[in-house]
Each structure stands twice: as structure tokens, then as C-alpha cells.
Write a structure and sequence with these properties.
Layout lengths: L1 H15 L16 H7 L7 E6 L2 E6 L10 H16 L5 E6 L10 H5 L4 H8 L17 E5 L2 E3 L1 H8 L2 E5 L3 E3 L13 H9 L1 H10 L5 H6 L5 E3 L4 H13 L3 H17 L3 H10 L3 H15 L18 H11 L2
Parallel strand pairs: 2-3, 3-4, 4-6, 5-7, 6-8
Antiparallel strand pairs: 1-2
Helix pairs in contact: 7-8, 11-12
């Protein structure tokens, strides 16, 4: 029996390690071509989407340019996020970079290659944004895993997300300041709301480097983790959100954003908060109240708050073990 339990534990452990984690790691100069191919089986795809249970992982895959985003990649990122929003089985997303850096901003080689100013202007005026869907509100929670460089437009992408998990040696900053490239993907709008106008202007006007410690101290990021743990910890954070009833999550998230960015007054924000309560949301709340009445959640334990759906292979093994 002990052997069977050890065997089952080993299979559970193997299945619980997501395959995407290895692709987020930094490749070293000593890595062979075979090693890099194994770490990144889709080298030609600029955006890679993977799904783990009700978590959708969206990876920027241009490691040769530290995941700088050109106009094509920006459109593909917008499409990937829209698909995640429309997927009824996806509750939380994780945005990350493949190959060691999150994103080094807009690919300036594309801008330098534009012969006519009107061509460059057409890129700037893309409805959803240059870097991705940065000019609208994402409809579901999105966690950003910050590794390596997260600068210029890459920092604007991170600000688009709800929460940010940063590795301790990662680098933030509006490095576009050095080249006279303006912020056009929401950085000047979202950053002051997150950390206050004075601190935001410090980062926007100077373009200086921001360390992980400072970013955490001023509220620019939500977690600082060890090198190599960024994507894994971002995934864990996403899971901690995805385990809860989602209609309530989305209602409260929407109310917080509306009150911060769109409401004309405190009273209007409160009216919107109450007005957006639906029959479906109340039914979800009733189910939660019934669980509480049954004793779930009392004493600080919430292990039964959401039923765990076992995969078929695990059900089969449990059935086999019960016959021994």
C-alpha cells in the first residue's frame, strides 16, 4: 500500500509541474541549440498561449530582442487576450515573457524603418494600443510575471495587468525617455493612480531605473520573489484568485476600477457598485452562504469552499486503490 501511495504521489507531482515553467527561464550563453529548442518548442510564434485548468498563460516570445513588441506582435497579443476574455473556462490570466525578460518595450527598429511619418502615425493610432490591448479595460483578472527587463512600453504592459510579481533582480523603468519616445500605452494614466502623481512623475520624467525593493515599497509591484520563481509565483497568485466564485470577483474588480478611473463622484461610484449586482451574482452569494451555514469557513479553514474536480486518471487510480 505504501508503494502505491508513493507511486500515486510521484504521478501527482509530475502532473502538477506545469510545462511552461522551463520556457520562462533565462538562457545562458553556454546553452546549446538543442537546449534552447527544448525550452522553447515554438521559436517562430511571437505569442504563445497555454492553458492550465482555469488559468490561461500568455507568453511574449521574442527573446532575441528581449521580447520587444512590434506592431504584428502587438496585434497578436490583443487577439490572445481577447480570446482569454471570451473563454468561459478561463478565469484568470498570467502575462509573462519567454527567455529571461518580460518585455523591453516597443521594437524601435520598426519605428526607425518607417520612411513616412504617416506610417508611424498609423501604428500609434491603432485602436487598442501599440503594445497590445492597453487602451481598454481587460475584463478578467490578469497577473504579470516580471523577469529581466520590464521597461518602456513593457512597463506599460505590466501596468495594464491587475497584479505584478517581480523577480528580485528584474529591472523597471521608462527607458524610452532616453530616446525621445513618448508613452502612448496607458503609462501616464495608470501609474499615477497606482503610486500617486508625485512618484509617477519622478519615474516618467527621469526615466531612471527602479529596483524590485523600491517597486515593492512604492506599490508598483505586489510581490518580490527569488530569481527564477517569477512565473511560478505569478501562477500561484492566479490560482489563489481563480479558486473563488468568479462573478463576485469580477463585480468587485469592476467596481474598484470604475471608482478609480471613470466615476465623476464618490456617490456615482457607490451607485454603480450597487446597480451592477445581478440575480446571478446573488445566486452565487446564496450558494456561498449555504456553505457557511454548513460549517465551511468557520475556524479559519476554507478547504471546502470550492469543490475540487479530479482528473479522470486520478479518479481511476483512487477506484483501483479502493479495491486493494
Amino acid at each position: 500500500m505504501l508503494g502505491l501511495k508513493s507511486y500515486r504521489f510521484g504521478r501527482n507531482l509530475a502532473k502538477s509541474i506545469p510545462s511552461f515553467l522551463s520556457r520562462s527561464c533565462t538562457t545562458t550563453p553556454e546553452s546549446t541549440g538543442t537546449d534552447q529548442q527544448m525550452a522553447n518548442p515554438h521559436p517562430e510564434e511571437p505569442i504563445i498561449v497555454e492553458k492550465e485548468n482555469n488559468i490561461t498563460l500568455i507568453g511574449i516570445n521574442r527573446p532575441k530582442v528581449r521580447n520587444a513588441i512590434d506592431s504584428i506582435t502587438g496585434r497578436k497579443l490583443s487577439a490572445a487576450i481577447a480570446e482569454f476574455e471570451d473563454d468561459p473556462k478561463a478565469d484568470v490570466g498570467v502575462l509573462h515573457g519567454i527567455g529571461g525578460s518580460f518585455c523591453s518595450g516597443y521594437d524601435l527598429s520598426e519605428l526607425a524603418g518607417q520612411q513616412e511619418p504617416q506610417q508611424a502615425l498609423s501604428i500609434v493610432h491603432q485602436p487598442e494600443g501599440v503594445m497590445g490591448p492597453t487602451r481598454r479595460m481587460i475584463r478578467k483578472p490578469l497577473v504579470c510575471a516580471i523577469t529581466g527587463y520590464c521597461v518602456a512600453g513593457g512597463l506599460e504592459l505590466a501596468l495594464m495587468c491587475d497584479l505584478r510579481v517581480m523577480e528580485e533582480n528584474a529591472v523597471l523603468g521608462f527607458f524610452n525617455r532616453r530616446f525621445g519616445v513618448p508613452l502612448i500605452d496607458g503609462g501616464t494614466v495608470r501609474l499615477p493612480a497606482l503610486i500617486g502623481l508625485s512618484r509617477a512623475l519622478d519615474l516618467i520624467l527621469t526615466g531612471r531605473t527602479v529596483t524590485a525593493k523600491e517597486a515593492l515599497d512604492i506599490g508598483l509591484v505586489n510581490r518580490v520573489v527569488a530569481v527564477g520563481a517569477g512565473l511560478g509565483q505569478a501562477y500561484n497568485l492566479a490560482m489563489s484568485i481563480a479558486k473563488y466564485p468568479q462573478l463576485c470577483i469580477r463585480h468587485d474588480r469592476d467596481a474598484a476600477y470604475y471608482g478609480t478611473f471613470s466615476a465623476e463622484s464618490f456617490e456615482q461610484a457607490l451607485e454603480r457598485e450597487a446597480a451592477n449586482v445581478t440575480v446571478e451574482l446573488l445566486q452565487e452569494a446564496k450558494e456561498g452562504a449555504d456553505k457557511f451555514r454548513q460549517g465551511i469557513g468557520r475556524g479559519g479553514s476554507f478547504s471546502g469552499i470550492k469543490e475540487r474536480k479530479l482528473p479522470d486518471w486520478e479518479r481511476a487510480e483512487m477506484k483501483h486503490e479502493s479495491k486493494l
